[in-house]
Amino acid sequence: MRRRVLALAVVVIAVVAAVTTTYAYRASLFPASTSNKPSTRVVHIPRGSSAEPVGFDVTHFQENFPTGNYPYPVNIRVTIGVNNTIEWVNDDTVGHTVTALVAPTDSLKFNSGLISAGQTFSVTLTTPGVYRYTCAWHNWLAGQITVTPA
Ligand SMILES: [Cu+2]
């Protein structure tokens, strides 16, 4: 009887040790850090941004923005990691678009279509590089997204 209890204790200890070791091993494979988790970056389109700013030159914009030589301030500059998502929230009272004019080779030029007031649009960028976008109706609303490799 005593021998049986001892044998049972050995088995229990062995099982506990095996389970603990397995957990520790798995924890080392999948660290608790969230740094590699896909994340979403939110960009707000401000209320009133449909009003054309003084001095805006649409011809100059169209000629120079795609080349990156456009001196007018690009409203939004965002840097995100690859496979992360960027979401635009239209806080304005009129519709806007986010329409990519520049995107890395072999990647899609995203185009939201009309984002109505209060609506959102999001895109997950899977190719590193520089993206430049504008609102199709209000070209002064423009931005640049830099996607860094993982
Ligand atoms: Cu717009």
Structural class: alpha/beta
Radius of gyration: 26 Å
Q: How do the SSEs run, as a string of H and E?
A: HEHEEEEEE
Give the strand content: 25-35%
Helix content class:
10-25%
Number of DSSP E strands: 7
Instruction: Say what the CATH topology of the largest domain is.
Output: Immunoglobulin-like
Structure description:
This protein has 2 domains: 1-32; 40-148, Immunoglobulin-like (Sandwich). It has 2 helices and 7 strands. It has helices at residues 2-29, 58-64; strands at residues 40-45, 76-81, 84-90, 99-102, 120-125, 129-134, 142-148. The strands form 2 sheets. Strands 2-7-6-4 form a 4-stranded mixed beta sheet, with no helix packed on it. Strands 1-3-5 form a 3-stranded mixed beta sheet, with no helix packed on it. A hairpin with a 7-residue loop joins strand 6 (129-134) and strand 7 (142-148). Bound molecules: copper (II) ion (CU). The site of copper (II) ion (CU) has 6 residues, from loops.
Task: Offer a quick outline of the entry.
This protein has helices at residues 2-29, 58-64; strands at 40-45, 76-81, 84-90, 99-102, 120-125, 129-134, 142-148. By secondary structure, it is an alpha/beta fold.
Topology, please?
Blueprint: H1 2-29, E1 40-45, H2 58-64, E2 76-81, E3 84-90, E4 99-102, E5 120-125, E6 129-134, E7 142-148
Parallel strand pairs: 1-3, 2-7
Antiparallel strand pairs: 3-5, 4-6, 6-7
Bound molecules: copper (II) ion.
Can you tag this structure with a few keywords?
150 residues, alpha/beta, Immunoglobulin-like, 2 domains, three-stranded mixed sheet, 2 helices, 23% helix, elongated, binds copper (II) ion
